[in-house]
Amino acid sequence: MQLLVAAILLVAASGAAAAWALWRLVSAVRVAQDRDLRERSLRLMALFAPGVAAAVQEPRALLAWQPLAGTARKLFPEECAALDGACGARFPFSVEQIQAAHSRWTAEWLVWEQAHDSEYRLKVAEIEEALQGPGGSPVGRARLDAVEREKLERYQRRYEEYVRVGKAFQALLS
After folding, report:
1. Cβ–Cβ under 8 Å, residues 89 and 95
2. In angstroms, rounded to a whole number, what is the distance separating the alpha carbons of residues 106 and 52?
3. Distance CA 41, CA 78 (A)
């Protein structure tokens, strides 16, 4: 009977030692996994830091970086979820950052539009003043027509870009 009790105690002690060793192993694996997740998350932050900085300077840069961000989110969902939690917003470009870039793009368009209008009003006024003098010529009128065409063409090219970029921002926000 003593032998049986000793055997049971030995088995119990072995089981406890095995359980403790397994617990230590699982804990070590979790620590290593957490460390690896943090390291991969830091690498993602470093990868996107230039893109975030560029988007602050130039709103269209966000549109260039966003496809890469989407791919990274698909490839590294755990890391991105960890960064989302740490940032309190979607990593690397939050909805607020996209909205701010869109607003800045629109504001820059309005500034450009006003400057464009002023620039061409001055050009037209100079040509019209020359036409009012003695001997207003067909060459002067042709210059006036050319300036009006140039103004319209330049406006149309810039407006097409404004609309294309604006739609791209809207698509990101949808």
Report:
1. yes
2. 19
3. 9
Query: How many C-beta neighbours within 10 Å does residue 44 have?
Result: 21
Q: Who has greater pLDDT, 130 or 173?
A: 173
Mean pLDDT of 42-52: 93
**Residues composing the chain:** 174
Could you count the other beta carbons within 10 Å of the beta carbon of residue 74? Answer: 9
d(CA 174, CA 171): 5
Question: Which of 89, 66, 84 is CA-nearest to residue 169?
Answer: 66
**How does residue 136 score in pLDDT terms, banded at 50, 70 and 90?**
low
Q: In 3D, which of 118, 144, 120 has the Cα closest to residue 131?
A: 144
The span from the CA of 119 to the CA of 151, in Å, is: 9
Q: What angle, rounded to 10 degrees, do the helices at 59-75 and 2-57 form?
A: 160
| Residues 106 and 159: beta-carbon distance below 8 Å | no
CA distance 29 to 12: 25
Average pLDDT for 94-100:
95
Closest CA to 62 of 73, 51, 72: 51
**Is 44 within 8 Å of 72 (Cβ atoms)?**
yes
The conformation of residue 127, written as its DSSP 8-state character, comes to: H
